[in-house]
Amino acid sequence: MGTHPTGYTAVDYGAVTVLHGADRGTYPHGNSLLVKGSDATLVVDPSLSLVEGAPPADLVLVSHAHEDHIAGLGSYDVPVHVHEGDLEALRSPESLVSGFGFAPEDAEEAGAMLREQFHVRGRPDARGFEDGAVFDLGGRTVTVVHLPGHTAGHCGFLVEPDGFLFVADVDLTSFGPYYGDVGSSLAEFEASIGRLREIEARWYGTAHQKGVIEGAEEFRSRLDAYAGVIQRREETLLKFLDGPRTVEEIVEHRLVYRPHVRGAHVRPVERRTAQRHLDRLLVRGRVTEVEPGRYRAVQPDCYRTV
Questions:
Q1: What one-character-per-residue DSSP string does the chain give?
Q2: Residue 84 exposed, middle or buried by CB count within 10 Å (0-12, 13-18, 19+)
C-alpha cells in the first residue's frame, strides 16, 4: 500500500493493484486498476489521478465511455480498448456529449467541461471488444464481462487466477443504479445485476467510493441493497401518481437526484428515468395513461398479469 504524489493510493489484491482516487474515488474522481502479467501490464479506467504520474502500461481497457473513467487516457500512447457499444463515444468527444442528451444550448458547455476538467480529447485509434474477450498478460488473464444498462457498452473485468472482478459503475452506492443516458436501459441494468450475482470471485472492485468488497456473500448482499434503489424509485413514482401527472411533473418531483442538486444534466436524466419506469409500469398494468401525456397509478385490485 502506498500513496502516490498525484493523489491516488495503491493497494494490492494479489497481482491486481487498485489505484484509489481522491476522496475514496467519489466523482469526479474514480478508482483505476493496474494488472501485471509476465508479458504485459494493463491499466483499467485511467482516472483524473492518473493525469500526471501515471504508471506505465502496455495497453488500456476502458469499462465504459464516461469522462471520469477516461480522464487520464492522455497519459497513455498505447492501444486502448472498449466495448463496441461505447466505441464511438470513446473515439469522438462529440459522440460522448450527444449520449448525455443535453439540450443544444447546454451541449457546447458540456463539451468544454469535458475538455477542461477531464482532459477528454477522443481516441480515434481505440479498438472495440465484445463480451468474453480475453487479454492474456502472461500467467494472468483479464476477461471482459459485458454489463450493459449504465451505458450500452458498460463492462466489468475478471482477473484470473487472482479472482478479482472489477464491476465499474455497478458501484454499490446508496445513489443506486444510473440509467439516465440516451443509450441507457433499465431492463439491461437489472439483467446485468442478475449476471453479477452468478459470478464467483474473491474480490469485487468498484469504480467509486465503496472500493473493494471481499467475498461473494458480502458482495451479493450489497448488490441486492443497490438493486433495491430501483424498486424504491418505482414505489416513489406510484405513490406520486395518486392523481393524473405529466412527465414534467414527475421530473420536478424527482426520482433520482435530491432537491438541492443543480446542473444541466438533472432534468434530462430525471425525464429519461421517469419515462423508463412509466413505460415498464404501463406494460405491467400498474399505471394507466388517463389522457394524452397524463398518467395515474392503477389501484391494486385492477392489476393485471402480462
A1: -EE-TTS-EEEEETTEEEEEPHHHH-TT---EEEEE-SS-EEEES--GGGSSSPPP-SEEE-SS--GGGTTTGGG--S-EEEEGGGHHHHH-HHHHHHTTT--HHHHHHHHHHHHHHH-----TT-EEE-TT-EEE-SS-EEEEEE-TTSSTT-EEEEEETTTEEEEET----TT-----STT--HHHHHHHHHHHHT---SEEEESSSS-EEESHHHHHHHHHHHHHHHHHHHHHHHHHTTS-EEHHHHHHH-SSS-TT--STTHHHHHHHHHHHHHHHHHHTTSEEEEETTEEEEPPGGG----
A2: middle
Give pLDDT tens digits for 118-165. 999 999 999 999 999 999 999 999 999 999 999 999 999 999 999 999
pLDDT at 167 over 80: yes
Q: Which cell numbers hold the place of 186? A: 433499465
pLDDT surpassing 60 at residue 3 = no
pTM of the model: 0.94
- Could you tell me the three cell numbers for 155? 463492462
